[in-house]
Design a protein that fits this description.
Elements lengths: L1 H42 L8 H6 L11 H41 L7 E4 L6 H17 L3 E2 L21 H4 L5 E3 L25 H5 L3 E4 L13 H7 L4 H29 L10 E7 L7 H6 L6 H14 L3 E7 L2 H7 L6 E3 L10 H7 L4 E3 L4 H8 L5 E5 L8 H4 L3 H4 L5 E3 L1
Parallel strand pairs: 1-2, 1-4, 3-4, 5-6, 5-8, 6-7, 8-9, 9-10
């Protein structure tokens, strides 16, 4: 009788275990299917099988032929569609990679003691600042076998599909005796904080050795790739843009590409020569930050906008290499850019399509470029870090020499070694 009960129990347990595993596998398949399906939907471009455009032009080896106006109109549509298909393919590949790394991150985090938190004190700033603080805190948490958390919900979290940072009530854990506060934003009981905003500090990495078995709040802007670069694949997964952001980015690209190619068509017909960018172009993103950094206090601190010489010479450098270059300009001062690049027929000014366009849309577009030209600030920095751009140029004279900001920075800690300084 005992033997029968044991067998029955074993069979029941095996059935439960099998059902549990089956459920988990089913949920994972549903999640993966949802991600890929969503990506295809918001990009609004085909991704399974050959489309009519691919059949007629053979994707990746297309050529635009001249003919009557109807043929030219078709060529414009085909050219735009080919570009969007290429960018769609790149985005779908990133979604697939993000799913793989998400599994690995969840497996690794399950090994950590989830009672020990590392929580950043989030400072005011834009999207780039938020991403630096989050990425650096996440990297430091990994290296110290901790769980990164937020004290509250931040506006930028909604832009990302896989961020998933847990939230901890500060009134609960900050009142405990075993809590240590780090950061110059907390006026009591802090013992360590960031000294340099644009530099790597070894002391900031020694959290467990300094504080042991305690929760830790982390202060500073933490703007150095060295805090997290060893986890680059995971960071790129964390910062996978939400499908709504990519959908808006695709709509913006389609709108501006159509406008540009229609102008190119008119130029080709009127001048009698094929426009150099109607075939599959080399896409080069230019991020021009001005606006707030022109404030006298910002200038005094060490900010300075990129010079006009840089903004003209860097594109010429890339255009000399890539004869089919098409420049997409993103800026918070588009009027300045339109005057600077006036009369150049291979520049597209990515003006907002509406007044409520999220900050992340232009960054999502920049991450898809073949090459990038940066000016100043963390927004462009993150666009480059999330991209697969072959060439990344940055303005060498930022921050201003002999300024407080320059003295608190280290270019080797801030810019990736593969990025190229340019003046």
């Amino acid at each position: 009788m005992a033997h029968r009960r044991t067998c029955a129990f074993t069979r029941a347990g095996l059935c439960c275990y099998t059902a549990l595993v089956g459920s988990l596998v089913y949920l994972w398949i549903i999640r993966c299917t949802s991600i890929v399906t969503s990506a295809a939907f918001f990009l609004q471009t085909p991704w399974v099988g050959k489309t009519s455009v691919e059949q007629e032009l053979q994707l990746g080896n297309a050529s635009v032929t001249e003919g009557n106006h109807q043929d030219d109109d078709t060529s414009v549509r085909n050219s735009v569609q080919l570009i969007l298909q290429r960018l769609s393919s790149l985005t779908l590949q990133r979604f697939a990679n993000a799913g793989k790394h998400l599994v690995r991150m969840n497996t690794t985090n399950s090994l950590f003691d989830d009672t020990l938190y590392l929580t950043p004190l989030m400072y005011d700033g834009g999207l780039g600042n938020f991403m630096f603080i989050t990425a650096s805190s996440w990297g430091l948490a990994q290296n110290n076998q901790r769980t990164m958390s937020f004290f509250e919900t931040y506006w930028a979290e909604k832009y990302f599909l896989n961020l998933g940072i847990p939230h901890v009530n500060v009134s609960v854990w900050s009142g405990k005796d075993n809590t240590t506060i780090i950061g110059d934003d907390i006026r009591t009981n802090f013992t360590m904080y960031e000294n340099y905003a644009l530099a790597f500090e070894t002391e900031m990495t020694e959290i467990n050795g300094e504080f042991g078995n305690t929760h830790v709040a982390l202060g500073g802007y933490l703007q150095s790739w060295k805090y997290f670069h060893q986890y680059r694949d995971e960071i790129r997964s964390l910062f996978t843009f939400h499908r709504s952001i990519h959908r808006l980015a695709c709509l913006k690209l389609r709108t501006h590409l159509n406008e540009h190619y229609n102008k190119a068509l008119n130029l080709s017909v009127n001048v009698g020569i094929p426009h150099r960018n109607l075939a599959s172009p080399t896409l080069i993103g230019i991020h021009v930050r001005r606006g707030d950094i022109l404030d006298p206090l910002q200038l005094k601190h060490g900010h300075q906008p990129a010079s006009e010489e840089y903004l003209l010479r860097a594109p010429l450098k890339l255009q000399s290499r890539y004869k089919d270059a098409l420049f997409l300009v993103v800026s918070n001062d588009m009027e300045y850019c339109q005057k600077l690049y006036q009369g150049l027929d291979n520049y597209i000014f990515m003006t907002p399509l509406n007044d409520w366009e999220p900050d992340a849309v232009d960054m999502a577009i920049l991450t898809l470029m073949d090459h990038l030209i940066l000016t100043v600030g963390t927004y462009g920095w993150w666009a480059a870090y999330l991209s697969d751009a072959k060439d990344v140029f940055y303005f060498k004279d930022w921050p201003r020499v002999d300024s407080d900001m320059r003295n608190a920075s280290n270019a080797e800690d801030y810019f990736l070694p593969s990025w190229k300084p340019f003046v």
